[in-house]
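[AMINO ACID CHAIN]
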Amino acid sequence: MAKKTMIGAKRTMMQAPTLVAEIGLLIYPDCQLAAIHGLTDLFRIAGEWTGEPPRAIRVSHWQASEAGVEPVWDSHPGKAHRLSHVIAPPSLIMPDRMAPVPSAAQWMKEQHRSGTTLCSVCAGAFVLAETGLMDGRRATTHWAFAQQLAKRFPKVQLADENMVVDEGDIMTAGGILAWADLGLTLVGRLLGPATMLATARFLLIEPPRNSQRPFAQFIPKLDHGDDAIRQCQHRIHAEAASLQGVSDLADGIGMTGRTFLRRFSAATGMTPVEYLQQVRIAKAREALERTLVPVDRIAWDVGYSDPAAFRKLFQKLTGLPPAAYRQQFGIAAEGH
């Protein structure tokens, strides 16, 4: 009997899933608890469809109050928290009645400095915008709240026509039920497209179209522990279109060019130039998918004055010329 018990325990230990990430769900006053619990269930269900070896996403709930932000629930307790993502869910009240939550804003800024990707859904964008980290960034929210977001946070670049806007270290989703789109997008990135599709089928919901693209997406590495390099990454994401190059990034953090290149490559797996190219092309891809802006104008908007050079680089990184990419994935293709 004891031998059978030991065998059973060993088998249970062998089947314990590998945790690939930890996603923190922020509970603030009057937030939509259905989103908190729905995302919790979605990530748990995704873990059931990973196959072998089993993998899972750790989920934790964080309660915001005047005193600060504290963990109140954990799907895999016992280990120190290291959040890869934080999600601010929708609010159940209108934005003009949402009170500022300074403790949540400060906590999110601290998490962001440590390499956490910050996300919001619907009116959760107002909570995220309090951090100031959305200033100068493109972001979306519920279409009915877009003008209020623009009025309260005028430095945010409103992109409310999009369901999900991915700025690398900042992600925003639109409607009140867009937590499912955001959740599946994260499942696709963390557990793979096959698991994402299996999860969507099980839940009988449409998978987010972006996650079905047959091209590798640029996923910035921000949790490497090099604060100075992460500061440069944040600057690249925020100023990609206006940066004339990357030489001044080293000066901005007081490094020699050689040291900066070595540390940047070690932390991100890319040279600074390659990283800047990836960020710009990611922005161009989204513009091609979501707008009918001419290709030459998109090239200019993302930081390239030479349209021919832009086209050559775009095809190198995505596998398609910009016009063909738009034909396959753009808004015109959705009507077919």
About this structure: The longest helix spans residues 272-290.
